[in-house]
Design goal:
Strand order of the largest sheet: 4-5-6-7
Radius of gyration: 16 Å
Distance between the termini: 43 Å
Largest sheet: 4 strands, parallel
Structural class: alpha/beta
Number of strands: 7
Order of helices and strands: EEEEHEHEHEHH
Number of helices: 5
Strand content: 5-15%
Helix content: 25-40%
Length: 175
Amino acid sequence: INSPRLHTATPATTRSASGSITPLKWPHDPTTVNEAQYNANNLAVPLLMFLAKYPDLRVVVDHCAKPEIRNKHFDDWSRDLAEIAKDGAVCCKLSGLVTESAQDWSEAELKPFINHVFEIFPENRLLFGSDWPVLNLASDYQTWKDIAVRSHEEAGQSAVPDNAHAAYPRLTVNG
């Protein structure tokens, strides 16, 4: 299994950045959140294996699984992400789409991908993310935020500010 950002060697082990493989220790702390930062080419199989092996695993799919928008690769990405979205413990961070688009991207180019994420994840399992500072390579924060807000409104969803707190139980906000 090759999942570079989760560093998975098998569903029962993890691979550290140095390459060493260690067994997972389970049960884990229920406040631990695992971010699955994959790209569209290697998302489904490793993550679905993890979810089957550890049904109480809390996961946030980062950057909508980095679809290859610039190459118009929608079908495989949409099918795989829909399969993962069936797991009620998985949330998705709406972020990272602009940098996966062509250099001359438009909001219309992003729409099918954004709409699909809204269709398969209920609003209580969607998180907003900016992907800042990487976002600055292709856009700016305000432009991306405006697109995300418009998309929420068009999908009939409200941006639920407590989603991040629910997804990341250790997250605290100072006064």
